[in-house]
Amino acid sequence: MDKATTVTAQPTGLRLQDYAPLIGDETVARISAKAAALDGKSVQHINATKHGGGVAEILQSLIPLFNDVGIAARWDIIQGTPPFYDVTKSIHNYLQGKDGDFTSEQWGLYEETNAGNAGVLEDCDVILIHDPQPLPLVRERKNGQRWLWRCHIDLSTTNQAVWSRAQPYVNQYDSAVFSLPAYQQPLDRPIRFIKPAINPFTAKNVPMPADQCEVVLDRYNIPRDKPIVTQVSRFDPWKNPVGVVEAADIARKTVDFTLVLLGNMADDDPEGKVIFDQVKDMAHENTIISAEGDDADLVNALQSYSDVVMQKSTREGFGLTVTEAMWKSRAVIGGRVDGIGAQIEDGVNGFLVGSIDEAAQRLVELIGSPDLRSRIGETARESVREKFLLSRLLEDHLDWLASVG
Q: Residues 216, 128: one domain?
């Protein structure tokens, strides 16, 4: 197999010092000191896609920040055939709780494709593998290297048969990180917990004035004559776009609004087109289904301009789209799952719902109460500033690197 692709991360948010107005000079100095203590270690991050998911978005911004503080960081992706991505998407679904298991042929394809990607590995001090797709690359480790595994998905109800296949690989790593304690699985290696975070300086997250939002929405023929309710996420069954449409249908019996479901098609997600078509077939006439989610301006405009943002996931490793909308002072309705519950305190900086009827009820309440939306949104933005900016994620990674020597 050809050598995997090296990804050039974007320059936006390149310097730690850019975060000083948001986090303070003392925090910047503390993070810089931790980086200096690592004495210029080199780190190679590896995942399975360069765009279309939260991991890729984090790495686009985190790699430049690593390099800014003196850690030589690079980012590469593995390559595979469509059948390989079918298998890895199934692994993702099984590990998030779907019933089933693999044939020996499918598992063999998974292992063989990873073996064929051995050429991606560089002579770095630390190899940091993201998620299950490149997990077996650890078989290629060199003496003296530290290998770390970062799991971004929700393992709270994991399929134990499939986890038992993955676990021996994870136990070959020096350490593993999960987003939340609820996702932890038994391992023979040290475990840490690191929540994801957003870069506030990307095109998707910088402040967008209302008049500029209107220009972008008009460009995509998104009407502004009614309140707008938006969900931004991949077309994935765990993101539950079907449930969002059903909740909107119930809420429309009381209030009128335009629903926008915006997503994209990740390179490693063959399920996306199926879900997209399913949701499009059931959509109400005042519902817009769009796969233009790679347009950062459109994402920003929708999240900034919408009256309510939803993320009604049934499983969620974390949900960066929740963080993004909260940063824009939006009132967010999220599924009552661990990843979203780590961000939203119900009734304080957003709302958590456990059913379609509950989601519809919150939609009606929020659309009818601008004051409530404003109060919730202001609290939401401050909670992101305190807990979920990329500078904190960088510091957590520096602490992790220090812990493995």
A: no
Distance from C-alpha of 68 to C-alpha of 313, rounded to nearest angstrom: 35
For residues 179 and 49, state if they share a domain.
Answer: yes
Does 165 fall in a domain? yes
Q: Are residues 266 and 159 in the same domain?
A: no
> Could you tell me which residues come within 8 angstroms of residue 39 by beta carbon, excluding any fewer than 6 positions away?
none
Q: Which of 23-27, 54-58, 106-110 has the lowest mean pLDDT?
A: 54-58
Q: What is the span of the domain harbouring residue 356?
A: 210-387
Q: What is the pLDDT of residue 180?
A: 96
Same domain, 320 and 393: no
Q: pLDDT value at position 355?
A: 97
Does the pTM exceed 0.85? yes
Helices (H), 239-335: 241-251, 272-282, 296-305, 320-327
Indicate if 368 and 252 belong to the same structural domain. Answer: yes
Binned at pLDDT 50, 70 and 90, residue 17 comes out as very high
Number of domains in the chain: 2
- Residue 5 has a pLDDT of 63
**Which string of DSSP letters, residue by residue, matches 80-123?**
--HHHHHHHHHHHHHHTT------HHHHHHHHHHHHHTGGG---
